[in-house]
Write a structure and sequence with these properties.
Pfam families: Methylase_S (PF01420). This is Type I restriction modification DNA specificity domain-containing protein. Belongs to the type-I restriction system S methylase family. One of its GO terms (molecular function) is DNA binding. The protein is 30% helix and 19% strand. It has 187 residues and is α+β, with helices and mostly antiparallel strands. It has a single domain, classed as DNA methylase specificity domains (Adenine-n6-DNA-methyltransferase TaqI, Chain A, domain 2, Alpha-Beta Complex). The strands form 3 sheets. It has a 4-stranded antiparallel sheet, covered by helices on one side. A 3-stranded mixed sheet has the order 4-3-7. Helix 3 crosses helix 5. It starts with a helix and ends with a helix.
Length: 187
């Protein structure tokens, strides 16, 4: 018997599978010479599980405490809205950064979906194509937050979600570790 996730499962709008969205978009955050890390969209890649710290900026404690509507927590999924929409990665534990414009953090409702499965599906060719098809903007592509409910996520039974999500996570972690070993050997 053949099982096809995209054909054999009910699909649910992404927004119905979330308990919270961290959305600090809207205005440019004031930066400081040091302090809390502020990551940008270049730090989120579909090639790593967690953000990379490339060209980060910093925020003062006051800005960190007062400027933001909310901060991501471990296990949230960072989702790029502008530039290269659809890139996603996980928020690590502990969280040592904050996010501002051009990305949001999605918090899965664990009573409805296994978070690692949601992360895996958001990286799938099918969902990435849905995101690409809804991009707007000729010069700088962006994905509007109101399009999140158009992303239809297949929902298999929980044990299948856990198997898919855990397998993808473990294989991705192993691939990242092997890359670091190879980079160290090459150096």
């Amino acid at each position: 018997m053949r099982f096809n996730l995209w054909e054999d499962c009910n699909r649910v709008p992404l927004t119905e599978l979330l308990s919270f969205i961290v959305d600090n978009r809207g205005k440019t955050v004031p930066t400081a010479p040091s302090g809390h890390k502020l990551i940008a969209t270049n730090c989120v890649t579909n090639n790593t599980l967690f953000p990379v710290y490339d060209k980060i900026r910093y925020l003062s404690e006051e800005t960190y405490q007062t400027w933001f509507r909310a901060h991501p927590i471990p296990g949230d999924i960072l989702f790029v809205n502008k530039g290269t929409p659809g890139r996603v990665c996980l928020v690590p534990d502990p969280v040592d950064f904050c996010i501002a414009q051009d990305m949001i953090a999605l918090r899965a409702d664990e009573s409805k979906i296994y978070p690692k499965y949601l992360f895996t599906v958001l990286r799938s060719r099918e969902i990435q194509q849905q995101i690409y098809n809804t991009n707007v903007g000729d010069v700088i592509p962006h994905f509007k937050k109101q399009f999140l409910d158009q992303l239809l996520i297949p929902i298999p039974e929980r044990s299948i979600q856990e198997s898919i999500g855990d397998l993808y996570y473990v294989l991705s972690l192993k691939a990242e570790r092997n890359k670091k070993i190879n980079d160290n050997l090459a150096a």
